[in-house]
Structures are given as structure tokens and as C-alpha cells.
Please model this.
Amino acid sequence: MTAFTEKLRDAAGDQWNRVIQHRFTLELAAGTISTDVLKRYLVQDHRFLDAFVVLLASMVAQAHSLEDRVEGCQFLALITGKENTYFERSFQELEIDNTQRAAIPNAAVTDRFIQLMHSVAKEGSLGEKLAVLVVCEW
Model:
């Protein structure tokens, strides 16, 4: 039986391949990405964190059972603990202070993705929330 996530990947078709073959993805995986590119990426990625937490918490509230809520809560604890520490440690290691971070504007895609997460958290079905969460973490 094919896993649900495999079906989603297959449905994405060539777009999936473009993502995994993108220069950024390949350089990140190979450890050859430039420090400046990595800095910009981490700042943008960190800006998703608050909206992601809101979306995940809304999914937990809408889950159908305690068992599903517990799984979601455990993931929420992971994201708000080690994930946030990862960013802070990365910023420190790459010598990106708060002033430098604040000076980097959001990319248009960052603003759109944050808006999507907030919108789905507020008005989306459980399935829509799960779909956006999978995209965020995949």
C-alpha cells in the first residue's frame, strides 16, 4: 500500500522534482551553500515559526480525539522547544544579531505563506490544516 505522503508527492509531479533538484536544495544537502544565502534562508524560515505554531495549535484544538491531540501537542512542544533553540543557536553561530535580522525584509513568499497559515488556522477544515502542516514540515 502506498503511503499518503507518497501519493501527495506523486501528485505534485514535476514540481516535486524541480524542488529537490533546485540549486538551493542541492547546495544545502551538500554543505556547499554560501553563508549569506544560508543567513537569509534562516531569517525567512524563522519568521514562519509563530504562524506555524498558531496553525498547529488550531489543528490540535480541532482534532477528533484525545489520542490525536496528544500527538499534536507533543509535536507542538518539539517545535516550540528545540526548533526555536536551533534558530537562536544558528543565528549566534552565523553572527546574525537582532538588528541584522530586523533589517532583512520578508520575502514576498514569506508574507504569503504566513498569511496562508493564519487564514487556514482561522477558517480551514482539519484536512486543510493538515495539508498546510505537511507542506511546512516536508
Summary: DSSP finds nine helices and no strands in the chain. The two ends are 21 Å apart (CA to CA). Residues 19 and 92 are 28 Å apart (CA to CA).
